[in-house]
Design goal:
Radius of gyration: 35 Å
Number of strands: 0
Order of helices and strands: HHH
Helix content: 55-70%
Structural class: mainly alpha
Distance between the termini: 94 Å
Largest sheet: none
Number of helices: 3
């Protein structure tokens, strides 16, 4: 009596493509979002490189005079905030 031989294992071959339309749409959307982010950041980076928007310290107004007149109010607000804890 002979034993039947088992079939030789064949590699799996799908009948259709492994990627479908939804996969391709998702890849295209990802690429478009990436390109959009690069485009928007490129505009901002070009603006940030210009030195025209920098204000020198000598042009800034003095803030010391504003604190002297309201020092009592600042202390009172700090005291109220600490008392409310």
């Amino acid at each position: 009596m002979t034993t039947p031989q088992s079939k030789i294992a064949a590699p799996y071959r799908p009948r259709r493509a492994s990627l479908n339309r939804v996969d391709y749409l998702l890849m295209a959307a990802t690429v478009m979002v990436f390109v959009g982010v690069l485009a928007v950041n490129g505009i901002h980076a070009a603006r940030a490189q210009g030195a025209s928007g920098i204000i020198p310290a000598s042009d800034l107004p003095s803030q010391d005079a504003q604190i002297d007149g309201r020092a009592g109010m600042i202390k009172a607000r700090i005291g109220l905030a600490l008392a409310g804890r």
